[in-house]
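Data availability (excerpt). The following record was deposited with the supplementary files.
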Amino acid sequence: MDFIKMLREDHDLSDLLCDVCDIEILPEFTAPQDEGGHLTYNISGKTFAKAGSGSEYILLEDGSIGFWGSEGACGRIADDLKEFFEFMVNCPYWLDYLEEDEYRDKDDLSEFAKEIFKEHAENARDIDLDLPEAQQELAARLGIEKKEDAADILLRFYHCTTREPRFLSTYTEDDGSAHSGTGSLFDR
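Predicted structure:
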């Protein structure tokens, strides 16, 4: 299934993705952020979506999905587009799930994920959004299963962001000095 094409053509679905996950699908692929020529990546790719913060989701040359955060975080988040959308739909506002200690035990991770989602659902009510209902609609329209327990999806995410080769960004200063990230989003 070509998720990107579907979202580009169906503006209502694209708006729902933005409401539930804070992801805007771009009308066309673009070059990843390069900070005026200072920022490079170890794996080439093309940006297909952005978050409200300006962070980017990048389809990497190996078919996996990378993330470049507007605050400098960089790493791989999914092995392919299907896993990416499963992750986004089941774990909206996923940056709140980056507590590495919670990933040591699957039962603890499951409880942690439920607590995070409960907080998101409560916050969504403040903007008159029924997050569980919107999430279920998004999952159905994308043909993705909405899981009651996101622990398995989060474990796939964890293994993806920590596997080699990591997706790295390097910022090169005007004086030639360079700073590279770790390639794991858990090392923030």
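Summary of structural features: The radius of gyration is 16 Å.
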